[in-house]
Structures are given as C-alpha cells and as structure tokens.
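Objective 1.3, modelling of assemblies. Example input:
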Amino acid sequence: MTAPNTPTKKRFRAVHPFVPWLFVGPAMLLSIATIVAPFIYAVIMSLRGVKVAGGGLGRREEVFVGFANYLSAAFNAELWAGFGRMLIVGVITIPITLGLALLFALLLDTPRVRLARFSRIAIFLPYAVPGVIASLMWGFIYLPGVSPIRELAANLGLAQPDFFTRDSIFWSIANINIWGGVGFNMVILYTALRGISSELYDAARVDGCTELQIALNIKLPLLLPAIVLTALFSLIGTIQLFSEPTTLSPLTDALSSTWVPMMLVYRDTFVAQNLYGGAATSMLVAVLTIAASVLLFWITRRRSAGGMA
Amino acid sequence: MTSPALSMPLPQSRSRRGSKIAWVPTIILVIGALYCLLPLYWLVAASSKLPGELFTLPSFAPGFSGGIVDNVVALSNYRGGRYWLWTFNSFLYAGGGAALSTIVSAAAGYGLAKYKFAGKNLVFAFLLGAVLIPGVVLAVPQYLLMSKVGLAGTYWAVLIPSIVSPLGIYLCRIYAAAVIHDELLEAGRVDGASEIRIFFSIGLAPMIPGLITVFLLQFVGIWNNFLLPFLMLSDERLFPLTVGLYTMLNAGTEQPGMYTFIITGAFLSILPLVALFLLLQRYWRLDLISGSVKG
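Predicted structure (tokens):
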C-alpha cells in the first residue's frame, strides 16, 4: 500500500499506450459492428432503389436514386398519420406517467406513510413485464366477453366501455405504457430524492413548513435533473412505439398495419419487400428521435441555467 | 410534528415512526399499488380457469376445477412443447447477452475510468452517442446486415446486437471511478502484475454490486425485447417468449378455446423476472442512473 499522501500526479504510472484500448476495444468494435455499420448501411440503402433495366422482363438492378425514397416517404400521408397517432399516444402517456411517478415518489418520501415498501415494490413490478406480455394481458382485459372492467360496469349497471374504438384505442395503448412505465420512473425519482440530505427538510420543518410545502419548494426543484432524464426515456420510448399496437392488432380492427411509423417501416421492409423505402422511413424516425432528445436537453439546460442566474 | 426532538437534526428522521399515520399519502399509494397489481392478479385468476369458465365465472374469482393443470398441459402440448423451448431461448438470450454485455461494459467502464489516454473523451462520446440512435430504427438495418453475413435466423443474430449497452458502459464508468482505489491498482503494478491481471484480480471485485445492476438492467432489456428477435428470426424453434407468445396470440384470436392457455403462457412467462426482482431487490441500484453514487 502506498502512503495516502502520494501526489496525485503519480497515480497514473506510465502504462503502455496500447493498454487502455484493450479495455475499450471490445465495446468499440461491437458498437461499430452493431450500431455504426447498420446506421451507415441504412443511410446508403435509403439513397438507393431498384431499377428494372431493359424493358419489362429486364434485370432488376440496384441504383443510386438520391433523395427519391425520402421524398416519397415525406409525401406518404400514412406516415404522417402514423406520426400523428404516435403523438397522441405520447401526449396522453408522458405527462400521466411522469405525473404519477413524481406523485408516488414524493408520497413515498413523506414521513409516517404506511405500507410504503409494499407500494413501492408493487408499483415497480410491471417493469418486469415485457411490453408484449403487458399488451397481451391488457388486450384480454379490454376484450369484450372476457374483460373484468366491462363485467364490473355491467354489474354496477353502467354502460360497458369499449376499449377498441378508433378513439378509445389511444387511451387503451397509453394505459399499457403508463402501467408499465410509472414504476421505473418512480424508482429513479425516489432514489434521487433519497440522495437529498434530510437536514434540508429538518431545517424547513423547524421553520414551520408543511410536508406539502417541503415537497413543492425543496424536493421538486432538486428533482429537476432526474425528471428531465425520465422525460427523455419516456419520449424515446414513445417514438419507438411498436410492440404494444402490434400485439393488440390481432384483437381489434381499430389498429391498422401502419398505425405508428415503426409499423409502417416493418410493413414496407418485410411485407412489401421495399428495403429502400423502409430504410428511408427508418432514418426519418431516427432523425426525429435525435432531434427530440437534443431539443429536450437544450430546453431544460437553458431553463436550469436561467434559474441559476 | 410538535415533538421536541424535531428541533435537533436527526439523521434518521425520515424512517422515524411518528404517532400519526399519514393517511392521504398511504391511501393514494395503495391505490397506485392496486392499479399495478390487479391486472396481474386477473392474469393469475384467468390462468386457473377452464376455457369455458373464462366466460362464465366472475373475472376475479379463480377457477377450482383444475383449470391451471389443464392450461399448463395444453400449453406444454402446443406445437410439441414449443412454449418451453421459447422459455429456454429467452433465458439463453437474456442470460448470455447480459453476461457478455456486463463483461464488455465493465472492461470499457474500467478502461475509461482508470486510464488516461489520447482520445479518451472521444471514445466515451462515441460509446455514449450510440444511445441517441433508437434501437428500433437500427433493428431493420441490423437484420439486413446480419443476412448479408449469413447470421440472420440464428441465435447470434439476437445475441450479438444485445451486447453493446451505452447505459451499461456509462454506469460502469461512474461506478469504477467511485469504488476502485488507484492506490490498489498502483500496488498491483509495483508487484509486477499485468494490466489485464490487475483488472481481473483487483478492479473487478469492488465493481461487483454495480455489475449486478448492469447485468439485471440488460437482462430485463433483452428478455423484454420484441422487435429484434421478431425481425431476426423466422424459425419458431429459436423464438424467445415474447415473439412466441405473440405468434400464439395471432393464431389464437379466432379460437376462444385457446385464450386460457395463452393467458397461462403470459402468466408463467413473467414469473422468472418477477422472482428476479423480488430476490435481488437490493441490487436494483437505480440511483446509479440518476447519477448519485455513494460507493
């Protein structure tokens, strides 16, 4: 053991410059193979297309087509309708998920709450359920003839809700996402709360603050970075919406095969065998995701910087 | 609130039991817990019913006519025992992928935290920047590339893309920086150990709690993944549970007789992860994600 007062300069003894690459190398190579290469490949594919050379029975050959695929994707009304539907699901899902997660995290952190451990574990549990399985389960809970909610409504003499109309389907899908997402976000926010020194609260309590005032005036501002993080996770999750509507679609006619953009990409690529068009649409979704992430960071960073000033 | 002890800063005041119970927060939390648990309870109740009972018995009443046994038998017989094969595959993808991912992330995180080298920040930005590209968008080109190299439709097609985890690398880096003491590494160097040996015998041990978190996050991520195996695999013998159950639902929507054993399949498929959660609760260090490491 070296003496604790070793100068920090000596910490990094000269190791062979190749050594660090031994450690980061595998991750780098795999990132290149499974992320960068497919991404570049998708960009190339999106700029290419198939041309039939030499009349009707001619050979099909791959040619550079420029932005033609992007143009036809951009003029595809179904894609924009899909983005619209995705947006509706997101506008329902994200505020409710984050609102509930925040509410539960603050309540868990309140003194003299009973059954807190039970509630925390119970609310986190849906995170263990894959989106496909959650959709399958909720699909049956929504399904007429099986639905416990419709049964309950009938027993109470109320109108039976229909979860599979063209309007209610947005709420039905949002509910699956909310059910699956609240717990994860709650735990992130709750652990962030636990990291705040309780001396801050004790001082506020001595000054006569109520628990509600402490939550709103002390905890909420300190939670802001964690809230941004959870918002980002939820946003990216929404743009990638695929498994929930895909799993529900066998149960209802309210979901078309192009209901959200990623379903359209799947149909173009695998059903219609139009790899080039699918790649172009993929890239549009990627650009949107990256733009949304960057925008969110930019907005929040600006706001928190403004708050500091 | 008026207890005189309050005027002194108590380090454990948060877990202190006061005389009054905070009813409103407790009730709201219990309602939240019920919202999360009732659908799962319904899944259990429905799994215990015979196919006919699903439509006749009250929804939340379990069936006592041996429905669960019938359902498990029907599920096991479905296409010659495919369900159990899918379960095995899910364990293989999630377990193998998470193990490989943890090793790769640990090495990268350690390398970034414990060495100074030219281009280090660039490497870190490169590895983390990957998180910006949505996995869903990559799945289609990943499939196309995999078919170019002849791996589409094999176990590798699902395993290889599951290894890189920007979040895992990020967590390993902050964890390694927080828990591995440079003095120990230096002592190893003085003793003449190779850098690889130092990593495995000195660096890795203190990282284990963090590595378990990384393993669990990745395990859940792969276990829950649907799109990647859905695109990559066409042979149903290679399907994981998510894709297998989806094809079962697709085949079964027209046959109400299949509902109960599809539901039983869904119920059984979530048991491993639920068990993993409840048993390894203390390793769900999500505080790592929100950025506070306390060793």
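Residues 1-12, 305-309 of chain A have pLDDT under 50 and may be disordered.
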